[in-house]
Design goal:
Layout: E1 4-7, H1 16-25, E2 30-33, H2 40-56, E3 60-64, H3 67-73, E4 77-80, H4 87-94, E5 99-104, H5 107-115, E6 120-123, H6 140-154, E7 160-163, H7 171-176, E8 181-184, H8 186-196
Parallel strand pairs: 1-2, 1-8, 2-3, 3-4, 4-5, 5-6, 6-7, 7-8
């Protein structure tokens, strides 16, 4: 699983597939298509195009929430929330090859997702983010360090990806905290969007 992923978001000028293309072109190895306000048909259209770009540029495409779409386009990975279909059930449908990650906010959540067979856990939010409604409690750097320390004590091993309001200049700080990787949305989109207008 790549260590940095870009999560797409609704944008007035850039479609989700175009965001994926730009991210892959800029060397981001993984892109998660996250379309919370769209129909299944719209998501499928964008995901298909994004998958094409991923294949062309040797990127990893992650689908948020939809097992059916991940299966239909042959996505490399799927990301599921705690209240979505459990990962072990999704695995029965999609097979052993696909990477499946799960969302967590606490150490208990991580234990649950690992028991369900998650390949990685998206742990957050790091800070308040405008891209997600009904946000879980903010973790901050101290929250991550605390959870990682408890994981070490328990001998609990699973790649942890930080998510939620992360700025580009904080990447190194978070990597040094012992996290496996990071998922970035808004901060990276600004950079991508600026480059399309240069």
């Amino acid at each position: 699983m790549p260590k940095i992923q870009y999560i797409t978001q609704d944008h007035p000028e850039l479609s989700h597939s175009m965001q994926a293309k730009l991210a892959f072109e800029k060397g981001i190895e993984a892109v998660q298509i996250r379309m919370k306000n769209s129909s299944e048909k719209e998501i499928l259209t964008e995901a298909r195009m994004a998958m094409q770009y991923a294949d062309e540029m040797d990127g990893t495409l992650i689908i948020n929430d939809s097992i059916a779409i991940a299966k239909e386009i042959g996505a490399h990975a799927l990301h599921l929330g705690l209240n979505d279909t459990p990962i072990d059930e999704a695995r029965k449908i999609l097979g052993a090859e696909i990477i499946i990650g799960g969302t967590a906010n606490t150490l208990e959540d991580i234990v649950i997702q690992k028991s369900r067979g998650a390949d990685y856990v998206g742990l957050g939010p790091f800070r308040h983010t405008s891209t997600k409604k009904n946000l879980s409690p903010i973790l901050g750097l101290e929250g991550y360090q605390n959870i990682l320390s408890k994981m070490n004590e328990k001998g609990l091993e699973i790649p942890i990806v930080a998510v939620g309001g992360i700025l580009l200049e904080e990447i190194e700080l978070l990597q040094n905290a012992g996290l496996y990787g990071l998922a970035i949305s808004g901060a990276l989109l600004k950079t991508l969007n600026n480059q399309t207008h240069e």
